[in-house]
From TrEMBL:
Protein name per UniProt: Helix-turn-helix domain-containing protein
Annotated GO MF terms: DNA-binding transcription factor activity
CDD domains noted in UniProt: HTH_ARSR
Species for this entry: Sulfolobus tengchongensis
Signal peptide: none
Annotated HTH marR-type domain residues: 7-51
Amino acid sequence: MLVNIKELAILTLLSEGELSVREIEEYTGLPRKNLVKTIKKLEKKGYIQKKAYIRDDVIVEITEYGIEMLYKNFIYLRDLVNEMETVLCTKFDC
């Protein structure tokens, strides 16, 4: 199952370590309302989990399943970029 770009960005950030929702918001520039909605979707899918609450913020971390999905998406996107390069370079003589 492919994840969307927002989900992929969040999973990529979390693959480096746990972050608060506020930190993810700063890194991605996503509006908090959309970010919270996306985080809930990722949690429901089992890709991330809440680790702690600090005042009005939540610390989240990626799960093993989330790491697996990130890797599967990486392989897919890597192959897609390679294919795009081949097609475009054939057409535009790169």
